[in-house]
Amino acid sequence: KTDAMGNLIAIKNPGAPGPKVMLAAHMDEVALMIVGVENNGFLKFRPIGGVDPRVLVAKTVLVGSRKIPGVIGSKPIHLQRPPERERAFTMEELLIDIGAKNKEEAERLVKLGECAYFTTKYEEFGQNKVKAKALDDRVGCALAMRLFQEEVSFPLIAAFTVQEEVGLRGAGIATYQIKPDLALVLEGTTASDVPGTDDHKHATSLGQGPAITVMDRASIPHPPLVQELFALAKEEGIEVQVRRNTAGGTDAGQVQMSEEGVKVATIAVPCRYIHSPVSVMSKDDYEGAYKLVRSYLKRLQERGGIA
Fold first, then answer.
1. Is 29 assigned a catalytic role?
2. Quick one: pLDDT at residue 81?
């Protein structure tokens, strides 16, 4: 079903005995909202979610329900004054060019409040790597869909939530309806294993397995569940890593505080360059996340409940 907020909730084995387990992944992605149209037909915009304006210049987008193609434009470098060349453009200095000749033509194509989305296509490259847009959190949605097909006897609910990027808004409402005994939040999280970042500052690293959160800005996941996941990974020979940064938050923050509280854990696939037009992830980390959650669901099935 789809609720009033827009969350999509799929339920397997409703009414069956055993723990009610929720798999949560958010469907929304960072984007740009159209807030104005200039007389020359260029579109003014503001970010939805955390978007760094430095990554936007000259990127292609699709605007609105009609998917009007556009390019994010700025003053070209040969027209910039010397001080302008020494700083990044602000969001207010960038505009979307949809090729319209004037304001009237642009307004026939695009409505205020519509969104512009990045256009990067999914592509595999390098050593089992993937580059694509919105891996935060398409990778979590892909995991939830795959895991939902597992054969279990207890109630299994996949909640594809909305508005995570603007305040974790959909997850709490979905959890209130589902009333789970336990929730596993599936995410794409920041990987900072890039040049210029010291090793000890890497939140996560590609190729070292899925990341398990111990604490972030929004939640402290249920410690016994977290430790059980680490022990299970060791037992099954699944490489995992600790998410070594407490900045940022996930739907776990709202899920955990629903009604009388919910035991929650966050399992994430590390992704470089999240909240930008393109992210990079390792298919090995994705498979590791799938195997870990699948093993945990199997463990629940075998013992008939939550430890």
1. no
2. 86
How do the domains of the chain map onto residue ranges? Answer: 8-29+134-303, 31-118
Contact 288, 210 (CB under 8 A): yes
Task: Decide: pTM greater than 0.90.
Answer: yes
Annotate 79-103 with three-state secondary structure: HCCHHHHHCCCCHHHCEEECCCCCH
Range 190-194 average pLDDT: 88
Question: Residue 172 is encoded by which pair of tokens?
Answer: 């709490």
| Structure-token match 């037009």, residue found | 277
Q: What are phi and psi of 56, to 5 degrees?
A: -95, -25
Sign of CA dihedral 283, 284, 285, 290: positive
Characterize the bridge pairing of strands 21-26 and 156-161.
Answer: parallel
Task: Supply 176's token pair.
Answer: 């209130």
**Catalytic residue selected from 114, 164, 165, 187:** 164
- CATH of the structural domain 8-29+134-303, one choice from 3.90.1170.50, 3.30.70.890, 3.40.630.10, 1.10.606.20: 3.40.630.10
pLDDT tens digits for range 9-35: 999 999 899 899 999 999 999 999 999
